[in-house]
Known about the structure:
Number of helices: 11
Bound molecules: 2-phosphoglycolic acid
CATH class: Alpha Beta
Number of strands: 8
CATH topology: TIM Barrel
Largest sheet: 8 strands, parallel, barrel
CATH architecture: Alpha-Beta Barrel
Mean pLDDT: 97
Order of helices and strands: EHEHEHEHHEHHEHHEHEH
Helix content: 40-55%
Amino acid sequence: MKRIIAGNWKMNLGPNQARVFLSELTKQDLSKKAEWVVFPPFVSLAETQKALTGTSISWGAQNAYPAEKGAFTGEVAVPMLIDLGCRYLLIGHSERRQFFGETNDSCALKVQTAQAFGLIPMLCVGETLAQRDSNATQEVVTEQLEKGLSEAHKDKPLTIAYEPVWAIGTGKVATPEQAQSVHLAIRKVLERLLGPAKAKETAILYGGSVKADNAAELAKQADINGFLVGGASLEPKSFAQIGSVPL
Ligand code: PGA
């Protein structure tokens, strides 16, 4: 399977900054062994479409509302994102769960809607430090997958990002062994929920303080199929370097 290296810009890089950033990014020597994806904020998607159409870099949105259209002031619908050339939809990032009331049930609706209109969901799962310390990691991640994928379509593409909450933006990256053991557990849950073939072809990305200097060891793990990168994705060179590790 082709690895995915995705950059989650979070609430950074408005349209003007995005234009400058993407013009730098397209000049980098991006490994052809990976699929490169950026997740800009909504307001920068049109600029992203302009800059990346015709390149090999894909893009997606950080959130969407799970309805086709209607009276939902302030929200953005999946067909609008398709209109902007998006290929992926980030769902259930821990910041959305923590600050914006995202639940496993709302994730399930978003996964269903994304797939129905042809976006590839990237469902984020991961435990907090307290959950890890109380040995609940597997239980938490299993529940996030069981509920979040309850409406998922087996025959449509899907990706998962494992992001331990304690590793996001903290500089504390999971060890390759810690990450691999959760990725393997995720693969097994996917087998049970969606069947062995789907589990095998579903990319499971690791996220949480990924940088060029820790990506190489993580990338060697059998069940790590790419990275979801926050901070280090905001600088074109450091983002590109993450893909220079042997993939
Ligand atoms: P980080 O963020 O790489 O800055 O830890 C990852 C993420 O939140 O997706």
